[in-house]
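Inputs:
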Amino acid sequence: MKKSKFNIVGKPVIRQDGLEKVTGQAKFADDINYPNQLYGVMVRVPVAHAKIRSIDYSAIENHPALTTICDANDIPGAKKVGPIKQDQPIFCYQKIVTPGDVVAMLVGESEEELLRLRELVNVEYEPLPVLTDPRKALEPDAPLIHPELGSNLVIHHPLRKGDVEKGFAESDYILEQTYTTPFIEHAYIEPEAVIAIPREGNKGVHIVGSIQNPYTTRKVVAAVLGWPLAKVRIQQAELGGSFGGKDDIMNILSARAAVAALKTGRPVKIRYRREESIQESYKRHAYYMHYKVGFTREGKIKAMKIDIIADGGAYSSMTPFVTWRTVVQATGPYEIENVWTDVRGVYTNNPYAGAMRGFGSPQPIFAQESIMDEIAVQLGMTPDEIRRINGFRSGSITATGQKLEKHDVNVLTVLETAVRETDFARRWRENQQQTKKRLDLAALEEAAANPGPFILHKEDFLEPEEVLRKGIGLAVSFRGTSLGAEGVDAVAAYLSLQQDGSAYLLSGLAENGQGMRTTYSIIAAEVLGLRPEDIYYLDLDTGYVGDSGPTVASRATLMGGGATKVAAETLRQRLEKVLRRHWNLPETTNFVFADRTVYPENQPDRKIAFAELCNLAYWEGVNLATIGWYSGPKVHWDESVGQGPAYFTYVYGCQVAEVTVNLSTGEVYVERVVAVHDPGTVINLLGAQGQVYGGVTQGAGYGLWEEISVDQGFIRELNFDQYLIPTSKDIGEIVPIFVEGEERYGAWGAKSLGEPTLELTAAAIANAVRNATGRRFHHLPLNLEEILLGRKLYPTSKRGSV
Amino acid sequence: MDESKKPKAISRRKFIKGVGTGIVGTYVVPSALSAIGKEEKKGPKEDWIPISLTVNGKKVRVKVEPRMTLAELLREELELTGTKVVCNRGECGGCTVVLDGKAVYSCHILALDADGKEVLTVEGLMQGEALHPLQEAFWEKDGLQCGFCTPGQIMAAYALLKRRPRPSVEEIKEGMSGNLCRCAAYPKIIESVQAAAEKMAGRSS
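Outputs:
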């Protein structure tokens, strides 16, 4: 389908929710208050691993500021929850397994009083040995985090394709490298907040909160209360960012609020401050990755052996699914005959890890793209050449044995586009040959220690440019769209036309700030010949549309867009039927819906206003409301060998990073990132650009600054003074380029963009730093110490660093 | 276990006043804007201090608890919830308001210190039904995604344009660098500020 066919799709369209957001009227969860509302404040124990002996509330239980206390004894249903394994308690009652754990919640009118009172709760516990190194989690003497499971192994995904030993034997060279990536905080700007409101009679409970996945939250709350799903209604407040982060934590907070609301009969609000948010919420997994690659002198990769340990922290959360995406994509977008991959997710006493934008892909991409560049350097090739030799083509077989077909296999297209745009190969070669004298830091230190004459001459000083090095680097990826073999993949969209031609729209997926409401409004408007502003988007409430699964995996545009288009087309057909009858036209007549009018194809003069047509249909008693349903094609998976068509379609991306490295400070400045992605069809140009800017910037943060470091299970970086996320000054230019093409799925083939934009950037930057400095860095983030000293420095409780 | 690792309220007010572990000043006092009829809660009444200030052009006389921040006064007492508290530590700019013409982090200023001053929040920007050029520009240029940092961004931009009506891109980057946006709409925020500067120059000439 050609772009020119569209009236609105692909053009820049301003946000549906822009007015309320620029005026400060948008109601985020903590902006909402109910009469007679109470607050819940958490009680924690400053220990990473312990057996709970007793909890003594006697010092506070008669205090007037305390309305009630909730702990595990107040939970009527499931005491432990989790999306895959139910291993996480709402309130801990047996053990503490990480410092974010909560044993009880104090409920009262004044948060301030409750914060004072919680210091007086006396929890007796028996400390247990703390496990913080995931590489030791499977050793026989490792402390067991969940002894009832018998092992610290959360999941093991093996993948076996071909014969790696044979592949290594056929290789001319073998390269082995180890890479690590840290825990990462989502750092959504809005901290968590939720209110549970007990409803009258048998109506159950109503929950309003900063919730990413209302249907998941409903499942958890219903399980905890021991109630039917329909008795729990979850409403999403305006959401201040999520990036995968407001899932499990919000389910648990919602359950705690619901328990307290039902116990007290009053609305209960929980709102976190930043420190508490970072302390308790889940993180991006820290990965330890060992790659061994065999290749020929012509550059053909013959075999790849990968061993990955993912630190899942204290609870399993999404670890099995995150690591599953890793095993599918760990070899990168390269056709490799012989692959042997093991990805293991393990428990430790670290903060637990779950979903975050990228979902198990940014880590292996950093490793795989770093090693691809090393291969290029070893063979005297440029990075694009080695990728051209090995990159997927249409019909290629992936590591999981899936034949890539029935979609545009765009690896080489995006690569060539990015390479051309940046004059990559020439600049990369030039930088590799940087003839400027290498900066001898040791000599400088020696000179400083042995000062010579007091009069310094010009040649004693370094010119600023002598310490600056330019680098350029690229990374490519392929990414399975939507959930793949993780689970059911279907979405609902409710569309209701009014008598005057205006419309209500609501999908079962959630607006997290990404602009989904606008995207869906464009799709409905395109089909019906309306303007996006004719569509009024409703607040998401689990009571209104069917369970559409979570808003994750960059599936909103693809799946929800598909459902919206189905709904709009259904209503369009009903209107066409009315019009044929009204104008006595044959069944074969086609219509054009455009500019709020409708006319028979080739008869633009015979027009009816869309509003008039709706009115006509209304008075004929035609049903002008419908639910569109879109479900993804079936995929399947053989767990024992990691083989199968994992996802029904893929997207491809290539990013080129241009950096300047200051060799005397270790600072890396990203001058420019060219981001080439193939989202199928761009629905909203503004929204698509926003996804690229956001993804690249977060990816640069991942590459250069961000790290949740953990000291005996305790997080060091509890606020934005220590956890550094990029500001407006930290990144140079970002250039989004979209390669559009034919695709069969969703709305006119619109696929995924949110996560592909993030997953590549750190790898591209690392390769650019290698190009600038001649040194390979194996451990993210590439902060000042890493570049300057080749290791990280962490503050200790005493003075100084380790 | 090391005392410093205890998970408890770490608040700047602790060293401001050296007492309490307060998170939010929930001491509600009768105020000029409290026509909403909030019930009075308990609190050390002798600590309440009357102040008067101008908020979005309206004179407000209010009693404040001494540890209360300006952000708390705005959000909790005056129910102006457009101003957001994000880090509560003067790091992120989410709570930016304009105080006597300058952008300030309202989480980092005691309500008492706003006595006699003029406060402008995002709610005070519209002229009747008309959006302020900055609001228009942020909407038109898509200078936002989730919108949580947006009120702070807009108020920072307001103060910037007051100081520098036609800023360069570098000046905008510098001027807006105290406001974090995790959606990282930065390029479009910069465009929004540029567009607003043009609009404002056009309207005043």
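Remarks. The helical segments of chain B are 12-17, 70-77, 133-140, 150-163, 169-175, 186-204. The first helix of chain B runs from residue 12 to 17.
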